[in-house]
Design brief:
Helix content: 10-25%
Largest sheet: 8 strands, mixed
Strand content: 35-45%
Strand order of the largest sheet: 20-19-26-25-24-21-22-23
Number of domains: 6
Distance between the termini: 74 Å
CATH topology of the largest domain: Endonuclease, Chain A
Shape: globular
Number of strands: 41
CATH architecture of the largest domain: 2-Layer Sandwich
Structural class: alpha+beta
Number of helices: 11
Radius of gyration: 28 Å
CATH class of the largest domain: Alpha Beta
Length: 746
């Protein structure tokens, strides 16, 4: 310690001053208020190695209270956790957090001291100024989100009744570690951002589960069928396998129990209902009788719906790269399409839209009023900070709700409609989503997309999210229960089997959306295209740069780079991506998309589309209400690619290589494989320019049938009538390239 102090004094001779006695306890200093100069002593509980910034931030406390200190340069850089320090400086505030800044002097009195014991708090009584900047611990909470922790990101924690925030800072070793899938105890610094107190865990050991087999993964869902699905999880130590479940949070079905002790747990939940949402919780008991519990998660069975998916685009796509049929260009007539769905609604319509201006576009308000008059329950949510003039055209019989306004909240930026979610006819529920606001500019000029999916499971998931904001499942909103933005919880299903197509759904800011977008980007093997209005998240920019450096064709179009906070992300992209594949929009429109396309030219690599309302921004990630959908389907990927190529070429782009599939020696019919699903044989239609091969595989990769068709127009019978019910893969290959199609056998 003496050697370290001597070196610090030598290197920073003007920094550390002659020792003076502390004038106040930290509690007394805090009471003096902003603008006063204080001298206090305390033990450092978190140092500069954990907190990013242009200067140095530390947290310290004595036995009365806690404080933070910030100073540019190196004045505090030698201070480490466990140091006893005497510090002098002026009290100030940073986003309402009381701190010493600027710092006049600091003395290290001793090092390697034991840290103060964390103060035990609860989510209901510990998040107050009394504990600001102190080391605290909260027990028995769950953390929102799945996957791994992202840096500089907020996560909700809940005890079932109360919800608060933790923040994972970039420099902490928690970044990239799994988000716990069980009840945990969390230790950290009680910090503050404006009106919101945030717990700052510092190390992986700050988040722990206590006794029991230690559940170390979230519950994973697989093999989703209409009446069953599999659930699995991992434990650190051997334990039994238990799943509690039910159609509501009471989980009142008989639990599934396997008494064998194991660390890899998997069971099938069977006897379920099609198109239903199920609540489930995992538990494991070790040989000593100690139990570990996971947080409750929400899952969905496959529905009996058609699974029909449509994509519509406001600007005319470039159909020269179409492979399964032309993408649909609608312009403002997309509202006519929405009105047709509204006119067809029988029981319910739920709308969450950021902005709607009924002037200059077809009269959606009249259609909604007519629906309400014929007995359809219409509910409407919008953002409080937009004009939403269309809301003024609604009948007084239609209840409406606006989002809250405040520094801790962003905007209600969703754009979704849910129709007839609870219909007894599984072919009626509709989900309408995408990037499009209902304004003249957005509907006539600005590139936007709309996705419409007919699926009951998905509709019920969107309805859950709507009702969390609405505050009730009834006709009228309940402001006492209404939750927006960071106050929401991760309480919707994330994975769906929609007629054999994998679909993922996430809502911001609770569902760890950015990490799931990055996971989708990282799955790219051949090509990756992005069109997004905003990019202020360097984590996303780095993900794109990494794929380019891995040899994946990576290209992006951004609307601009002048938005607050966008320059760092732009700097990463412009330094890593070639200029022929990176463009700022130079057209007389707002490029309003928020989508990514992965491997649309490589069907063997599981193509996907990420779309929705979620801008790639800090606000979307941390405060806004947003929705993101990931569709694993090569047809949908190519439809979006047609739109992307048009915008890319509008802005001067030519470097699309052979991503259009023009070098693939097969022309695919829009109805390439039909009927699908089938109860007998299927038919495969295509035109081969060279010799082709076709194989049918099961999901274990075994070839069940092979055929060598000739050149020219082909219509081949796929013999599946004798196969058991399930999913199969039909592979069509020529010139070293392949298309793979999913076929469902009933």
């Amino acid at each position: 310690m003496m050697k370290r102090a001597f070196l610090a004094l030598s290197l920073l001779s003007l920094v550390f001053t002659t020792h003076t006695f502390a004038q106040q306890t930290i509690a007394q200093a805090r009471n003096l208020g902003v603008g006063n100069t204080v001298t206090v002593t305390g033990i450092v509980t978190a140092d500069s190695t954990l907190y990013p910034g242009s200067g140095v931030t530390i947290y310290f406390q004595d036995n009365t209270a806690g404080l933070s200190a910030f100073n540019p340069g190196t004045l505090l850089s030698g201070v480490r956790q466990g140091d006893s320090i005497e510090i002098t400086g002026e009290l100030s505030q940073f986003n309402q957090l009381l701190q010493i800044s600027p710092v006049n002097s600091v003395n290290i009195l001793s090092s390697n001291n034991a840290l103060p014991a964390p103060i035990s708090v609860t989510l209901s009584n510990g998040w107050v100024q009394q504990y600001e900047c102190m080391l605290v611990e909260v027990s028995g909470v769950t953390v929102s989100g799945t996957g791994t922790f992202s840096g500089n990101t907020n996560y909700n924690i809940t005890d079932g009744s109360n919800t608060r925030e933790i923040r994972i800072n970039n420099r902490t070793p928690l970044v990239g570690t799994p988000i716990p899938g069980s009840l945990v105890n969390i230790t950290g610094i009680m910090s503050r951002f404006i009106g919101t107190y945030q717990l700052l865990p510092r190390y992986t050991t700050d988040i722990n589960q206590g006794a029991g087999p230690q559940i170390i993964s979230d519950i994973e869902q697989s093999n989703i069928a209409t009446t069953s699905f599999d659930l699995s999880f991992e434990t650190q130590d051997p334990g039994t396998t238990i799943f509690y479940y039910g159609t509501n949070a009471l989980m009142n079905q008989p639990p599934v129990v396997n008494a064998n002790l194991t660390t890899s747990h998997s069971e099938t939940l069977s006897g379920l209902q099609p198109g239903r949402i199920y609540f489930a919780q995992a538990a494991s008991v070790d040989a000593q009788g100690d139990t570990s519990l996971s947080p409750m998660r929400v899952f969905a069975t496959q529905s009996l719906s058609s699974g029909d998916m449509k994509a519509f685009f406001i600007t005319e796509p470039d159909t020269s790269v179409a492979r399964f049929g032309n993408a649909v260009y609608t312009g403002s007539s997309i509202i006519d399409t929405l009105i047709a769905y509204v006119d067809n609604a029988q029981s319910t319509i739920d709308i969450a839209i950021y902005n709607w201006n009924n002037n200059g576009i077809p009269d959606l308000g009249t259609a909604l009023n007519n629906a309400a008059n014929r007995g359809v329950r219409v509910r409407f949510i919008t953002d409080a900070q937009t004009a939403t003039l269309g809301m003024n055209t609604l009948s007084s019989s239609i209840p409406t709700l606006q989002s809250p306004v405040g520094a801790a909240y962003g905007i209600m930026h969703n754009k979704f409609v849910v129709i007839d979610a609870e219909s007894t006819d599984p072919n009626r529920p509709i989900v309408w989503t995408g990037s499009t606001n209902w304004t003249v500019g957005q509907l006539t000029t600005d590139p936007n997309n709309t996705v419409v999916i007919q699926d009951q499971s998905l509709a019920r998931a969107f309805q859950l999210e709507f009702q969390e904001m609405w505050g009730s499942s009834g006709s009228l909103p309940n402001s006492m229960n209404s939750r927006f933005g960071p106050d929401k919880s991760d309480n919707t299903p994330h994975l769906f089997n929609i007629n054999g197509i994998r679909v993922e759904l996430y809502f911001s800011p609770t569902d760890n959306v950015e990490a799931n977008i990055i996971r989708a980007l990282e799955s790219a093997d051949q090509d990756l295209q992005v069109a997004t209005m905003l990019m202020t998240r360097t984590t996303l920019a780095n993900a794109l740069a990494d794929k380019h450096n891995d040899g994946v064709y990576t290209a992006a179009i951004l609307n601009d780079n002048t938005t607050t906070g966008s320059q760092p992300a732009w700097n990463i992209l412009s330094s890593e991506l070639p200029s022929s594949r990176l463009f700022l929009n130079n057209q007389n429109y707002i490029m309003h998309h928020k989508y990514a396309i992965v491997d649309q030219s490589a069907p063997q690599s599981d193509p996907l589309v990420v779309t929705g309302s979620h801008n790639w921004s800090n606000a979307a990630n941390q405060r806004n209400d947003e929705n993101t959908i990931i569709i694993y389907d090569e047809v949908m990927a190519n439809l979006f690619f047609q739109d992307w190529v048009k915008i890319f070429r509008d802005n001067g782009g030519t470097d699309i290589s052979n991503l259009s599939g023009e070098d693939f020696g097969i022309s695919i019919s829009p109805n390439v494989l039909y009927p699908n699903p089938t109860s007998g044989n299927a038919t495969l239609d295509f035109t081969a320019y060279n010799s082709a091969s076709m194989q049918v595989y099961d999901l274990q990769g075994r070839i069940l049938y092979a055929h060598q068709p000739g050149k020219g127009v082909q219509s081949i019978e796929v013999p599946t009538a004798h196969l058991p019910a399930g999913m199969y893969l039909v592979r069509l290959e020529t010139d070293g390239k392949a298309e793979v199609f999913r076929l469902v056998k009933n």
